[in-house]
Write a structure and sequence with these properties.
The protein is an alpha/beta fold. The strands form two sheets. Strands 1-4-3-2-5-6 form a six-stranded parallel sheet, with helices on both faces. A three-stranded antiparallel sheet has the order 7-8-9, with helices on one face. The protein is globular, with a radius of gyration of 19 Å. The relative contact order is 0.13. The chain binds adenosine monophosphate. The site of adenosine monophosphate has 17 residues, from α2 and β5.
Length: about 280
Amino acid sequence: MTLPLILRSVADLRQHVRAWKSAGQTVGVVPTMGALHDGHLSLARAARAECDRVITTIFVNPKQFNNPEDLKHYPRSEEADAALLATVPVDVIFAPQPEEVYPDGFATTVSVSGVSEPLEGRMRPGHFDGVATVVTKLFGMTMADRGYFGQKDWQQLQVVLRLVRDLNLPVHIVGCETIREDDGLAMSSRNLRLTAAGRAKAPVLYAAVTAAAADIRAGQSDRMAIREAAEAIRAAGFDRVEYIELRDAETLMPSDDPTRPRRMLAAAWLDGVRLIDNIPV
Ligand code: AMP
């Protein structure tokens, strides 16, 4: 099995992409932070099905970590990632060093107001500025026609959609469904940091929001359903429920209008690991 080409500099990447584009080929990009699992691979497979060339970027973006410990402990496994991406296969892995992405003198921040402010934005100050900045840079570096993002990070997907619209970036964004373990836990690189006992409790997050969404659809009040979900998550042994909210699916603002698409989003701590999930309501 041939491994994808690994490129580390923007200059090398550009050279490849220019050659592809002059041959009339379309380019898809799948931005990741590595430690890849089936969720990431589903994005790469979607890109493979729709684009002539596929680039997966692997960059643990320091600017989107508001917690230095989280950055320090973020899992890194480039060799295993390359082997997984070879199964898709992707054409190129772009894995730059931080100095390549943020050279001395770097001074620009892309900040999306509104949709990036509540929920994750409130709990993780600066996170979405880091995401919006690096995603804008990755689109510039890769000149991709299509960008693939997971619904697992629903708010991030809405931030990217807003950013691309607002800045007229010539890239089409594709939102891919959340890939889950058999017990319902959303796949995440952070799941690797759970203890065996924590891993056994973790599916309760998805089970509880799924039950709450069903109760709301059946006519129960939003507040009551959410309170019960939070209690179930705490009772299962989670350390803390950070939020469970029913929001407008696009703006992420509070919504009690059932005629608009709504999303239930949750964040909770287990074993010192922060887990997030979301589902349509
Ligand atoms: P990350 O490496 O965590 O920054 O994620 C890179 C991309 O993969 C993001 O667009 C995520 O939303 C997406 N992703 C992560 N986990 C999953 C999953 N379980 N299902 C679908 N997409 C995912």
